[in-house]
């Protein structure tokens, strides 16, 4: 099998699989879960590590080279290091990343690195303890800061911080996050709030286009330049302040979608292939695990339905002429 097998109807080549290992999370971030929480999948519905590895082995033969483990919060799964080690031993897999809220990461960073983890993205939407606790509905920002230090010590690089910007919530911390990059090898990613599973009034009221980041840089009279050397930069437009050690980037799926370069597929914790984050289409792969030919065909079928773009910008204007049905699953149920 070659990478060219994983090409969608628009000629986009796919080499990246994001795998949600659980829909459960220890936090209840305001943009990800409703306050009352979610009804989680029964444990029996969640893919086992062996099932995940079977799928990865097949798609690695089809050209998948990069894996990202997500959730929910992936570190609520027991012994995640075992899954990392199993995936890292699969021929063709070159990069294994983790997206985490960082609360449980500090004591496990070194073991994850030893198992084969390449790098981490840590979700961190505020540097202020009280505000962080409010956004996450209970999180302790000090544990996340400890995890950043532990990742540096373990040699996990690059370390990226995912910051979902929300109007009137944390947009006054843009300068503080960028200042972090001046003296530390940290790569901040400002992300637009996406209407995944809920294009409601809360989302519209909190949505903030990322040109605000550029305005803050102008207000601070900061000079910056494009940065193109960071590994695994995906859809982020990256920049570095003059003389800074780290960088900051902009991921704007709503105001300037990057679908034309999309190279990723998703595998949900309950065993569905999702060709696009925003739409409802999904393909149950769990029932065919053990049949490599059937897994291959299902991934090709999923790719065949992948739309040209996710049309999220239309949700802001309440436009009705969307081409697909938006997903009702929240981000935690799909995988970030």
TrEMBL record:
[4Fe-4S] cluster 2 binds at residues 259, 262, 276. The keyword Lyase applies. CDD domains: Radical_SAM, Twitch_MoaA. Its EC number is 4.1.99.22. One of its GO terms (biological process) is Mo-molybdopterin cofactor biosynthetic process. It holds the Pfam family Radical_SAM. Residues 9-235 form the Radical SAM core domain. GTP binds at residues 18, 68, 99, 160, 264-266. Coiled coil: none annotated. S-adenosyl-L-methionine binds at residues 31, 72, 123, 194. Pathway: Cofactor biosynthesis; molybdopterin biosynthesis. Its cofactor is [4Fe-4S] cluster. One of its GO terms (molecular function) is cyclic pyranopterin monophosphate synthase activity. It comes from the Bacteria. Keywords: 4Fe-4S, GTP-binding, Iron, Iron-sulfur, Lyase, Metal-binding, Molybdenum cofactor biosynthesis, Nucleotide-binding, S-adenosyl-L-methionine. [4Fe-4S] cluster 1 binds at residues 25, 29, 32. Binds 2 [4Fe-4S] clusters. Binds 1 [4Fe-4S] cluster coordinated with 3 cysteines and an exchangeable S-adenosyl-L-methionine and 1 [4Fe-4S] cluster coordinated with 3 cysteines and the GTP-derived substrate. Gene3D superfamilies: Aldolase class I (3.20.20.70). NCBIfam families: moaA, PRK00164.2-1. Belongs to the radical SAM superfamily. MoaA family. Monomer and homodimer. Catalyzes the cyclization of GTP to (8S)-3',8-cyclo-7,8-dihydroguanosine 5'-triphosphate. This is GTP 3',8-cyclase. The lineage of its organism: Bacteria, Bacillati, Bacillota, Bacilli, Bacillales. The gene is moaA.
């Amino acid at each position: 099998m070659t990478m060219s097998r994983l090409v969608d109807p628009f000629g986009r080549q796919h080499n990246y699989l994001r795998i949600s290992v659980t829909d459960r999370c220890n936090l209840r971030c305001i943009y990800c879960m409703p306050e009352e929480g979610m009804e989680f999948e029964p444990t029996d519905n969640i893919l086992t590590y062996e099932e995940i590895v079977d799928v990865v082995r097949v798609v690695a033969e089809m050209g998948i080279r990069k894996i990202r483990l997500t959730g929910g919060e992936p570190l609520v799964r027991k012994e995640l290091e075992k899954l990392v080690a199993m995936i890292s031993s699969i021929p063709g897999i070159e990069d294994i990343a983790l997206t985490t809220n960082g609360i449980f990461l500090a004591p496990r960073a070194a073991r994850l690195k030893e198992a084969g983890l390449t790098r981490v993205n840590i979700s961190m939407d505020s540097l202020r303890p009280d505000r962080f606790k409010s956004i996450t509905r209970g999180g302790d920002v000090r544990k996340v800061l400890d995890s950043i230090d532990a990742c540096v010590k373990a040699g996990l690089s690059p370390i990226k911080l995912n910051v979902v910007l929300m109007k009137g919530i944390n947009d006054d911390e843009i300068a503080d996050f960028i200042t972090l990059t001046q003296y530390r090898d940290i790569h901040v990613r400002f992300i637009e709030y996406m209407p995944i599973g809920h294009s409601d009034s809360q989302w519209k009221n909190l949505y903030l286009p990322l040109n605000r980041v550029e305005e803050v840089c102008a207000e601070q009279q900061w000079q910056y330049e494009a940065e193109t050397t960071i590994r695994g930069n995906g859809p982020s437009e990256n920049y570095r302040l003059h003389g800074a050690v780290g960088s900051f980037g902009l991921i704007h799926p709503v105001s300037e979608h990057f679908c034309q370069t999309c190279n990723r597929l998703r595998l949900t914790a309950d065993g569905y292939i999702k060709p696009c984050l925003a739409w409802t289409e999904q393909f149950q792969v769990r029932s065919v695990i053990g049949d490599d030919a059937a897994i291959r065909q299902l991934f090709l079928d999923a790719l065949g339905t992948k739309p040209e773009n996710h049309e999220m910008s239309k949700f802001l204007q309440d436009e009705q002429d969307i081409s697909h049905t938006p997903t009702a699953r929240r981000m935690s149920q799909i995988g970030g």
